Amino acid sequence: MGALTASSLRLLLLVLTITAGVVRCKKAAEKPDWAKKDPIHFSDADVERLLEQWDEDEDVPEDELPEHKRPPPKIDMSKFDPENPEAMLRMSKKGQTLMSFCTVTLPTTRERTEELSSLWQTALHNNHIQAERYLISDERFIFMFKDGSQAWDAKDFLVEQEGFEQITLENKPYHGKYSKSKPKEEL
Fold first, then answer.
1. Which of 123, 119, 90, 122 lies closest to 104, judged by CA?
2. How does pLDDT run across 5-59, given as a tens digit for each residue?
3. Could you tell me if residue 70 is inside a domain?
4. In 3-state terms, what secondary structure has residue 104?
5. Same domain, 30 and 102
C-alpha cells in the first residue's frame, strides 16, 4: 500500500470532520430543549430534571430516598398480636414521617409551653428518639417524628410527665397521667 497523497489526506480529513459534525448534531438533536440552555439560565424545574437524570443511574440507599419513593415496610403478620393494635400501627409507621399534636395542662403561657416542650424534646433526644418540635399556640405544639414508629415510645414517656395534658397519634388521644381533662374511663 502506498503513501497517502496530500489530496487523499485532505479528503480523509474532510470525511472525518463531516462525520464528527453529523454525530454531534445527532446528539444535540436528541437533547430536550431545556438541556440545550446555558446552565446559567436553568430554571428550578430544569435543575430538578437534571438531578432526576443523575439519580436514575445512581444506586441510592433506601433510607436516603425521599419518603414517597421508599418501598413500604415489610410487616411480619406472624408477630402481630390482635390484642395490641398499637403494635400494628407502630410497625406500619416504621420509616415514615408522623406528626403528633400535644397539649400542655392549663393554665399556661407560651413561654411555659416552650420551656416544657423543649425539655421533653431533649429528654426524647437523649433516649435516641428524634423529634422536631413546632409551637402552634400557647398550650399546643407538634412533635414530628421522621421514624413514625418512635412516636409510641415518645407517647409512653410524655403521658408520665407532670404538666402534660394530651398527645394525639393517628387521631387517637392519649391523656397524661396528671391530665385534668382525662375521660372517666381512663381514671
1. 119
2. 777 777 777 676 777 666 665 555 577 776 677 778 778 888 888 778 776 766 7
3. no
4. strand
5. no
Do 42 and 102 sit in the same domain of this protein?
A: no
CATH number of the CATH domain containing 136: 3.30.70.260
Q: Is the pTM here over 0.85, yes or no?
A: no
Q: What DSSP letter does each residue of 110-132 carry, written as one string?
A: HHHHHHHHHHHHHHHHHTT--EE
The answer to whether residue 25 is domain-embedded is yes
**In terms of C-beta density within 10 A (0-12 exposed, 13-18 middle, 19 or more buried), how is residue 100 classed?**
buried
Query: Is residue 95 left, alpha or beta, with left meaning phi > 0 and alpha meaning psi from -120 to 50?
Result: left
C-alpha cell at 113: 409551653
Distance, in Å, from the CA atom of 62 to the CA atom of 146, rounded to the nearest integer, reads 14
- Number of domains into which the chain is organized: 2
Distance CA 86, CA 84 (A): 5
Supply the range of the domain harboring residue 114.
95-186
For 92, 116, 164, 173, the CA distances from 113, given in Å and listed in that order, are 31, 5, 10, 19
Count of residues making up the chain: 187
